Amino acid sequence: MKTDMPGSDNKATQLWTEQLVRDGFCIIRDAASASLVGKLNAELDDRFARTPFCQGDFYGRQTKRFGSLLNYSKIITDLVCHPLILGITAGVLGPACDRFNLNLTQGIEVHPGAPAQFPHRDQDMWQGTKGETQYVLNVIWPLNPFTAENGATRIWPHCHRVDALHRATQGEPFVAEMEPGAALLFLGSTLHGAGANKTTSPRRGLIISYCLGWLKPFENQWLCYPPHIASHFDPELAALVGYSLHKPNLGNYEGQCPSIVLGDNPPAYPAATDALRPDQESALAEYMEAMADLEVRAGPDEPRS
Asked: In this structure, what DSSP letter does residue 273 have?
């Protein structure tokens, strides 16, 4: 995939991943160029203007939100497929899944007078066991400066640890002040929330998040990007939004990888094809070998027990 984003190297990926896992968050100050973010901001101006305020105290009645960002800008692909971000995500989520997928892309505009958001952990959208693995990794990209006064995201460091998951909020949060071009990464187990906007101007940013490939994503990616749209995506991007298999055979279409629907001539009658994890392939091979040995020992005319 062509991109003008900074590349990823193993050392940088490892260092950022270690900080993220240790503290629950990290800020990469120069993750994208200011000019790229400025172009993206301009492309989304009209969508922000047309978006109504949210309904409900969690989303925020003085906040605007909209998803499906890949439908509004081609530049957003550079953020979604940022090499360093994907490398860090693989390090955090990879141990618990065959592959990770895009969970959400959302534009957020917090308007003057908006109160501080209820502190929460994004992993709580899934009702699985907490503390054993990470379900989601979030990335916030500011489109204008994030300051303490305009509602920059508040983060409670180290509240992602198992012994802190069920404790009430303690201590003062870290206020993630940053300029456009920076990226705030935080775990799904990290307590966080938008701050109050005490200024006279909106605070605008994007959130892009990735989840384990075997989870139902927060945003229904297949409705956001149906085949006639996803067929124009780079294969890596199409796989990220869900046109991919998670072994064993999870998310298949007629027993095949769903990416077959993105081609010019998808088969009318596809053959269901195994897509197993290595441990399953090994167990299956042992079983088939044992069955073959049993058949040999039984002979052609002897019944099998």
From this structure: -
**CATH architecture of residue range(s) 10-219:** Sandwich (2.60)
Model pLDDT for residues 270-294, shown as the tens digit of each residue:
999 999 999 999 999 999 999 998 8
Ranges of H-type helices in the chain: 10-23, 34-43, 45-50, 76-80, 83-93, 221-224, 227-230, 235-240, 278-298
CA distance 172 to 284: 53
| pLDDT tier, 102 (very low <50, low <70, confident <90, very high otherwise) | very high
Domain boundaries, the chain: 10-219
Secondary structure tally for the chain: helices H, strands E: 9, 9
Q: Is 303 strand, coil or helix?
A: coil
The pLDDT value given to residue 296: 83
pLDDT tens-digit readout, 237-252: 999 999 999 999 999 9
- Confidence (pLDDT) at 3: 39
Residues 16-27 have a mean pLDDT of 96
Q: What is the pLDDT at residue 91?
A: 97
Torsion of CA 58, 81, 247, 266, to 10 degrees: 110
- E strand or H helix that includes residue 106: strand 100-110
Apex 212 CA angle, 227 and 259, nearest 5: 25
Nearest CA among 8, 207, 237, 183 for reference residue 108: 207
- Nearest Cα neighbor of 185 from 162, 160, 161 is 160
- Residue 212 CB partners (closer than 8 Å, separation 6+): 93, 96, 97, 100, 101, 133, 135, 136
